[in-house]
User: Fold this.
Amino acid sequence: MALSKEQYKVFEDIVGPENISDDPVILDGGHSGPTGFSAGFYLQRPPAVILPGSTEDVQAIMKAINRYGLQANVSSSGWGCLSGTNALSKDMIVLDMRRMNRILEIDEKNMCAVVEPYVSAGQLQGVLEKLGFSAHCTGAGPTQSVLASAAAFGGMGFDSIFMSYSGRNVLGVEWVTPTGEVARIGSRGSGQGWFYPDSPGVSVWGTLRGGFGTSAGLGVFTKCATKIYPWPGEGEEHTGVSPTYLVEKYPEKLKAYYLAFPSYERMAEAVYKISEANIGYMLNRIWGAALPFVVADSNDEVWALLQTGVFQERCKYGFAFSLGAFSSREIEYQEKTLMKILEETEGDTIDDLLDLTPAGRSRLYYHLSWNAGSVAAVFKAAGAFLAGVSYIDTTDACIDGTKIATEVKKEYGEKGVLLDDGDACWGVAYEGGVLSGLHTEQIWQWDPSEAESVAGCFDYMVSSIKPWADRGFTLFWGGKMGPFAELYGPAATDYQMWLKRIKREFDPKAVANPFFYTAIAAEE
Amino acid sequence: MALEDYKGDAMRCEMCSSCKFVPIFGRWGDIELSEVCPSIMRYNFYAYGLPGRLKALAAFLHGRIDFEDNSDSLLDLIYRCQMDGACDNACKAAGRNMEPYEALLEWRIRCIEEGQVLPQLMPVIEGLRSDDNMLQKPKADRGKWAKGLKVKDLTKKNAEVCFWVGCRYSYDEELWPTLRKSIEILKEAEVDFGVFGKDENCCGGRAYEMGFQGELIKYMESNLEDWKTAGVKTVVTPCSDCYATFKAWYSRFGNKVEVYHLVEYLDKLIDEGKLKLKNKVPMTVTYHDPCHLGRLSEPYTYVAPGKPYTMPEKKVMGQLAWVYDVPKVWRMGARGIYEEPRNILKKIPGLRFNEMQRIKAYALCCGAGGGVIDTFPDYAHWTADNRLKEAAGTGAEALVTACGWCKRNFLDTLEETGDRMEVYDIIDIVQEAL
Assistant:
């Protein structure tokens, strides 16, 4: 629906004429598709895209949206085709948060950083590194928004073994509710700084964030604090020119490996032992056929490596792993411990395979130290990827799920509609195994420009859910929210009803994007 | 390749936004200096970054937007871009096997083919067609810079080395001292060289980056013929734009030119002991990598003589795309000229050299590229101002570069902003040190 002249003028007066557009060329430049799913499938254009510059702007925009019966979707870094850059209904205005791009504070004493929505994980890490710190980055990689993930989304990453997932990292939050009120959550709400997610009185932390986050379904988060952690990567030196870097000197206290095992069972045993020993800075379960995407430059090189069959054979049951320590004695202890675990589990560090490409070792190091290669790992093969049904459970349960998903996926690989890579699940470990053994997500890659591949993508997504659900897996990620909540809620304390009650309380006119949270009818 | 050949890339871009930032391997450091795309930095709308442009291209190829209804907006989006290649490098550094730069270039070529020309480009291209230069100056004035210099005229005598001046240096009088110094340096090194003077043509590169492919081909053919006639084996130029044109764009059409940027040549002469840097230059400087000397100068690699630089992709393993019968050598931007100017600066006695954050393959553009200096000068100056502030942040008193177009844009911007920063061509600094 196009905005009336009066409506457009109201929004224009809030942000200035240079920060609003309803031009079809601008709107088709990332706000109406084509979605990552589809060969030529477009969503409707939003009525406008608006670039707010402050919390006050966002507040005024949300109030106007309520007044005019419009809807809002929110995009921070705009990562991925399924991100908030698109409009999911004809009345949905897109708020692109790019202008809110500052790191507001780094509180070394309380170990937190305060950021605006457009600050990406790589930007924050780059600034923190100089101070000897780092921050959590999800598997999406360095360009994803810190705030969007921390305040409003799932957020698992390679560093989850050390830093947990985004929901555990968010502290104080500034929130513009769907009706345009500004709420300051946690210690920030009590005027005590940003360092704590709760404050005296009734906690709204669970409402605001919960396990998965509300995406854009419950308003706009304009500032948030996230935990920061010590960084063990000091001392790295490299040679070469982007993108052909080689590490010349590795840091003394950050060591990267790929660990391969003879079976799923041995791999699981190693994860448990690593958790028990409380070692590890990063853990990323990528399988044999996926590893070449990280260590090789081009798909030609990937194909050459995969044709040998050696990665598939030796790395089918394995994961990328790094140790991070904060003293020489600690790294020495960690290395010894890891080697002992490998001995006990018949593990192998596949050094010879990493030397098959000139930059193999460097790439693995960058992958684990800076989340570089995330994009390569998922987008490089075919163009698009999806992370489907996912869960957080014991390592054994995750491996059972992986076997099921791999079996279902096999058929689609053989048909040629998905990348035929012999496995199905990406995984990370949480909190040294305290929260659970692994978090696992189904991953599949397809070509969004090819109709058959797109159809295969949809078909696999649907087909792969049932076998998992039939086995009683605790669904975690996308399986719990949005339209899926209606499917799974009845089997899980009818949680979807609670989501709707919360939504109705905070968003009576249903203006905030319901797609990744829950849909309600707007009150008249 | 036709624009339609890039439809797949336009649709397969998954909007990870890696293209907007310094590749992660380079570290992002200061947040204000972590972005590399001037277009998204200046205009903020998603459409102005590479993912947005590729999505708009997909919409264009799907017929959702077209020149009939959206001409002004499309041209605005397509041309508010310096075509500096930073996004292409960052996209590939993130691990993608796509050719985003090629896609954007082909989109401009399509604009021209369909008669969609930004009005601001018309006088530039008409000037080129009538007087063989990009500055709308009379052809007859092209050789004036050499007045009084005793240099071999390649239209009359043969020489193995052609000193190629380029449009910017030929007509921008403020840059003439640099040219004259270049001549002195080459003479001091006893190089047998000549110039074409008033008969030198445009290289065609800037026009090409505006979408005028026909002009590039015309000048390429003419220049290759002139060099052949004059017995030229090697071309040496102080102009980064010309350098990239000869090395990269001419190679795109299958022609290999033995070309050196003067900075490469100087580095070589210094190494060989033919030039001695002995005078102190007591100054703190930083170095700005011109896009055309750096990432854009990387030539295309052919699978075999006479074969195209790229070929149809195939799929294996179901959906493993971008695989080729003969493995493709991707043009990533790493094989530009980065070390030579730094080598020279580090050898100059008394000179202190501080690096900026955005350097080499992920250097920020000066703002003048892709025709922006002609079409949207305010945007060109905005970009230059951003770069000059980064330079000032290093503690440098002077910014050194190796491109007349960059220098001109920096000087004009400083005049506009009133900020203080010396801007030197590296040739001037070398000459001072000799």
Notes: Residues 395-415 of chain A form the longest helix (21 residues). Chain A has a mean pLDDT of 90. Residues 288 and 378 of chain A are 14 Å apart (CA to CA). DSSP finds 20 helices and 19 strands in chain A.
